[in-house]
Each structure stands twice: as structure tokens, then as C-alpha cells.
Design a protein that fits this description.
With about 325 residues, the chain is an alpha/beta fold. The chain folds into two domains: about 120 residues, no CATH class; about 200 residues, 3-Layer(aba) Sandwich (Rossmann fold). The strands form four sheets. Strands 6-5-4-7-8-11 form a six-stranded mixed sheet, sandwiched between helices. A four-stranded antiparallel sheet has the order 2-12-13-14. Strand 7, helix 7 and strand 8 form a beta-alpha-beta unit. Helix 4 packs parallel to helix 9 and helix 7 runs parallel beside helix 8. The longest helix is centred in the first third of the chain and has 22 residues. The C terminus is likely disordered.
Length: about 325
């Protein structure tokens, strides 16, 4: 079993304290009564609930709360790695990513988006990293170590490109080879492509069980790249036409990381939804949904808790009695 919102499970750490406080009140009450009078006299002058009733009054609401928290965590049927989406982030590190038409520059914005998208995933799964310019290389193999992955993302730079140019198709093919069982690819680029097969490669991804998210980084107006080049002044602009075509052929979506755009939250929601669908497929159909079952159980327990508080089952003079609001008052049961 896995959870869409595992952060709610942390609240269970407070349950031992709740149980301790609840039963401390019961024990404290009985202790003070013991200080007031001896047991023989107490049976005659003090009206008390039966011990099991007192325990149930405190325990049932705690169980109801546990069911509600479990339901909030959105449990899903998934065994092993089923439902956990593996993602390969494919990041452009060509020299055009040094353009400063987005704050602080395209490369840094790409790093920020990758880190934010990965942090927004909640169902787990491994992450891999491919950097590309004229050629593509695996910068991080598939791993569940988020700290190591983040360290390698932060090191991405156009200075790491062995040959200048941009071949998106080759990068997508390398990323797909890292996902033999399917998964997701997040392509982060300004869209400049000097290869010839990017769209064809994107078209093949759905048939290989791979979902695609394209993140466009950069502005629409050409800007001069910093530094000096043998060919003189070099300018670069975002190629929306190519990015739209890649997303369309891959059956995915494209998001543009313009200044102020919240790409990460939208991308994370998409990846979580895809993970949920995969988890549902892995869990099969039929039976009671775990989250719904937990919610219904919590409601039943809550009703039971109210009934226990409303019931009047006591001990008087050592005998089990119930209390009626009518003229008969206490009656032996």
C-alpha cells in the first residue's frame, strides 16, 4: 500500500500522547476518589460508570480519529514498486541556456524547476537525470536518493557540454532507455534543436508507456548570449512551436516557465495524478477503496462514541444500573 499524501501519517506520532492524556484523566479521577473515601464507602455514595464503559468512551474517539487521518493520507492499493512513478529529467545544458531573459538565467531557472517538481512528488518513485547539448549523457542514473539527485541537478551547467549544439531527439531516446517499464519524462529546454528526429522520438514515447511533460524556459524575443564566439554575436529565443509539437506528439503537456509562472505546482499535480492512475491500475478493481473504507469506519466509530457518551450505564452500591430521565431514575440492569 502507498499513499498520495503521506505527510498526514506524521500526525500519528502524536497518538501515544493523546492516549496517555486520555487515560491519565481516568486514572487521576479514580485516584482522587480513593483519596476521598475508602473503596467500601465509595461503592455506596459515588455513582460511577462501569470500567469497560469508561475505557470505551476514551478509546473509540481515538480510533475514529485514526481512521480519519488514514483516509486523509489517501491510501492506494499498490504493491512493491507498482504505482510509484519513475521520472527522468532531461535538461538542456547547451550554451543557449546561459541567456539571461529569465531570472537569473535559463540554466538556473531550469535547475530550480527540476528541484521544485521533484520535491512536489508524493508517491515516491526513482528519479534520473540526463543532460544534453549536441550529445546526451546520464548525469544521474535512476535513484531513490533525493539528496544525491539534488546535488547533481545543482551541478548542471553549459560548461559540462562536451560539444555545442542541441539534439533533443537523442536526449529523449536516452531517457526512454532508462525507463524499460515505463514512467515519465520531464523535458526542460528552450526548444532550440539542431537535430532532426525530436518529434519522431516524442511520437514513440506513449507506445512505450512513457508520459511526457515539457517545460519551456526562456523568452520569446531573441537575446544575446554572454561571452564571445567564433561566429560572432549569438542570439537565442524560446521556440514555442517545437515545444508545442513535442508535447502534442508525445501525448503530454507543455508549460512555460516565464517569470512568475508556477510551473512546479502544475507539473507536480500532473505527475501525482499519473502516479495515482498507475497505482489504481496496479491495485486492480473491485473491493472497497482503502480511503473510503477508512472514512466510513471513522464515521461509524464517531457515532458509536456519541452513543457511549449518551448512554447512562453506572455502578451504584456495587450493582450495574442505568439512568432514565423519567421518574424511575436509576434502574438495575
Amino acid at each position: 500500500m502507498c499513499f498520495e499524501h503521506p505527510e498526514y501519517l506524521r500526525l500519528f506520532w502524536g497518538f501515544p500522547l493523546l492516549v496517555a492524556v486520555s487515560f491519565y484523566g481516568l486514572l487521576r479521577t479514580r485516584y482522587l476518589l480513593g483519596q476521598l473515601c475508602d473503596e467500601g464507602l465509595r461503592e455506596h455514595i459515588v455513582v460511577m460508570r462501569r470500567p469497560l464503559h469508561e475505557v470505551a468512551i476514551r478509546l473509540v474517539p481515538l480510533l475514529a480519529t485514526a481512521c480519519f487521518l488514514f483516509a486523509l493520507a489517501s491510501p492506494l492499493r499498490c504493491g512493491g514498486n507498482h504505482g510509484r512513478l519513475d521520472i527522468v529529467y532531461v535538461v538542456d545544458i547547451s550554451r543557449s541556456m546561459s541567456a539571461a531573459d529569465t531570472h537569473p538565467d535559463r540554466m538556473e531557472r531550469a535547475r530550480q524547476e527540476v528541484m521544485a517538481i521533484e520535491a512536489g512528488r508524493r508517491l515516491g518513485g526513482r528519479a534520473g537525470l540526463v543532460g544534453f547539448a549536441a550529445s546526451a549523457s546520464v548525469f544521474c542514473p535512476m535513484t531513490a536518493d533525493r539528496e544525491a539527485f539534488g546535488l547533481l541537478v545543482r551541478r548542471l551547467s553549459p560548461l559540462q557540454a562536451q560539444h555545442q549544439g542541441t539534439d533533443i531527439g537523442r536526449a529523449l531516446e536516452l531517457a526512454a532507455s532508462m525507463l524499460p517499464d515505463g514512467g515519465g519524462i520531464v523535458l526542460v529546454t528552450d526548444g532550440e534543436d539542431h537535430g532532426s528526429d525530436a518529434v519522431a522520438t516524442a511520437r514513440s514515447l506513449p507506445g512505450r508507456g512513457i508520459a511526457t511533460l515539457v517545460v519551456g524556459v526562456g523568452g520569446d524575443n531573441p537575446v544575446r548570449l554572454p561571452g564571445s564566439f567564433a561566429e560572432g554575436e549569438v542570439t537565442s529565443a524560446l521556440d514555442r512551436h517545437l515545444l508545442d509539437a513535442l508535447a502534442h506528439e508525445a501525448g503530454g503537456i507543455v508549460l512555460y516557465a516565464a517569470d512568475g509562472a508556477d510551473v512546479a505546482s502544475t507539473a507536480s499535480r500532473m505527475l501525482r495524478a499519473l502516479s495515482v492512475r498507475r497505482a489504481g491500475d496496479a491495485g486492480g478493481v473491485g473491493g472497497v477503496d482503502p480511503g473510503r473504507g477508512a472514512m466510513l469506519s471513522g464515521i461509524v466509530l464517531l457515532v458509536a462514541a456519541l452513543a457511549l457518551h449518551g448512554g447512562r450505564s453506572w455502578q451504584v452500591d456495587g450493582k450495574n444500573v442505568k439512568f432514565s430521565s423519567g421518574p424511575e431514575g436509576f434502574q438495575e440492569v
